[in-house]
Amino acid sequence: MSANQLIDPRNPRFTIVREYEAWCRLDNPFLEQNPNVPKTPYLLVAGMAPSARAKCGKCSDKIEKGTVRVGMPYQWRGAFFSYVTGWYHADCVRFEGVTQEEVRARTYWKGEKEHLAQVMKGKNTHVEKLGKTQRVKTNVEFIKDETVRDELMRTLTSASKPKCEEDEVDPNEGTFLKRGEIQPAEPPRGLVRSLLPFQKEGLAWMMENEKTQVKGGILADEMGMGKTIQAVSLVLKSKEARLDRMRESGVMETDGDEKGAEVDLNVEEEPKAKNSKRSKKGSPKSGGEEHVSSATKMSATNAHDASSSSSKSKNTTLIVVPTSALVQWEDEIKLCTKENALKVFVYYNDRKRKTIVEEMRAADVVLTTFPVLEAEYRKCEMQSKVPCAHC
């Protein structure tokens, strides 16, 4: 929309060329070259919505068919005189500092030209030319009822705020740039680099956002401010919190590729017999068996069942980066974390091997690129498509 129409409604800079029903600036050379064209200044176009295809330029909701709508110019180089009409709900527009009579005098009533022609002929339809063809069109856009027009003028000049602006935030308010105090978070145990104070605040902010219904946010720091190390710290913090919860419940998590079962940390095994000897195959001889309590066996079995179900829903973080940044992210994670603190899987080359699903499930971080993600998505989409018999 042209900001001038709302900022200075007493001095509109546009007119409407009735021949094309197009917005035209009053300083356009076309008007100087055609002195017979009326130069009446207009603020807006008003009419009834003939369909529900248009959306309001302010609230983005659909303008229902048969409701009053108002239009104002916005620039588009593909239109007559480079301006087209943007449509709005009548309740989403306000003109300040003008009276109802002034707004009415500067309103172009959509369909008025056809309406006057219909009155002359005594019909409710008019002939619309489409190139060499013609069609009969019913005039549904013109607002005939004076009561509706009066209500529209009252709405446009009302002192109350539009509904779409009730929750609007004013960036000029003194409290706009103020934020509550954020307590810095402690760096994760698996991090080898130190965090700056603002990075600790960023980590705390991200951890709080993870607990909300949105479960995330946008970290939009400038280049070189350490977004990568903050993101890695968040992944480490999430993993450490998960491991702490499992330790409190007596279950330890192991990688999916290890053969050892998870055991109860609170139950100790009985000491092995001193004379126990193993055969070449690794099984204990009958003379010296290992004595393991039944409680340990039961707890190990229960822990294995619990952890096997939890391993299926392991919290793996997917990181999608540009191809040029793939190696940088992999190296950065290795440099920022202790050895084996995070298991990273790079999903880029050799994506067809059979063990790839298990490797991804066992990883803490899966790194891939935008082109790879797009290619995989297209593979899924192609499965539902039928090849053309003629291609």
| Range of helix content | 25-40%
The total strand number stands at 11
Instruction: Please trace the helix and strand order, writing H or E for each element.
Output: HEEHEEEHEHEEHHHHEHEHEH
Per the principal axes of the C-alpha atoms, what is the gross shape?
elongated
Count of discrete alpha- or pi-helical segments spanning 4 or more residues: 11
3D structure, described in words:
The chain has helices spanning 3-7, 29-33, 100-105, 112-121, 146-156, 197-210, 227-248, 294-312, 326-336, 356-362, 370-382, and strands spanning 14-17, 22-25, 44-48, 68-75, 83-89, 107-109, 125-130, 133-138, 317-321, 344-346, 365-369. The protein is an alpha/beta fold. The strands form four sheets. Strands 5-4-3-6 form a four-stranded mixed sheet. A three-stranded parallel sheet has the order 9-11-10. Strands 1-2 form a two-stranded antiparallel sheet. Helix 6 crosses helix 7. It is elongated, with a radius of gyration of 35 Å. Residues 255-312 have low confidence and may be disordered.
